[in-house]
Amino acid sequence: MYKYETHCHTSEGSKCSHITAEKLVEFYKNQGFDGVFITDHFFNGNTTVDRSQSWDKMVNDFCLGFENAKKTGEKLGIDVFFGFEYSYHGTDVLVYGLDKNWLLSHPDVMSLGTTEFCDFARSDGALIIHAHPFREASYINMIRLFPRNVDGVEIYNACRTDFENARAKEYADNYRLFYSAGTDNHVGLRESLGGMEFDEKIKNVPDFVQKMKAQKGKIFRMDL
């Protein structure tokens, strides 16, 4: 089985991350993973990007974490893929299938509401996963669910409690949304990791999207 991290953050792109892209990829290579999806916080989340800049400069800065990770992956022989985490007051979705050129071409995307964004991104081929939907934190005053605007649910997040993950699975089951799993890694070494595994190697992001929609992946947990 080929193992992939679907949810992690670099210090280049996410203010809350404490690990560089290079060290993050090295960590996953050492843990025997076959690939990593870099999902740094977008401009409406805990980003490092200066939002007073031009749109093109913002996008270029945002992609630094992924680009640094990609270079390290090519050096070490581990695949690195692009994604991002879109936010609304603590409600987050993971976006796969859009790239830097798509972002550069859509400077109006920040004017969209959350459900509008999800629908628009999906119409352009994106896969939308509702990340840790039942996360509880002091800065989150409401749990929001968008079952008609997402493709799947992160039913195992290594940073969340068993209770929160169990509620996420119920959410997915009730609305017949497919499962996803990831670590939400901001530090590297943790007590446990999560991700998706496949019988075949992921060729590129569209291949991942297709395999996820066909439910060919299996969630896994790795305790360290």
From TrEMBL:
PHP domain location: 6-148
Domain of life: Bacteria
Pfam family, one: PHP
InterPro entries: PHP_dom, PHP_domain, Pol/histidinol_Pase-like
SUPFAM superfamilies: PHP domain-like
GO molecular function terms listed in the Swiss-Prot or TrEMBL record: 5'-3' DNA exonuclease activity; 5'-3' RNA exonuclease activity
CDD domains: PHP_HisPPase
Coiled-coil stretches: none
Entry protein name: Histidinol phosphatase
Organism: Qingrenia yutianensis
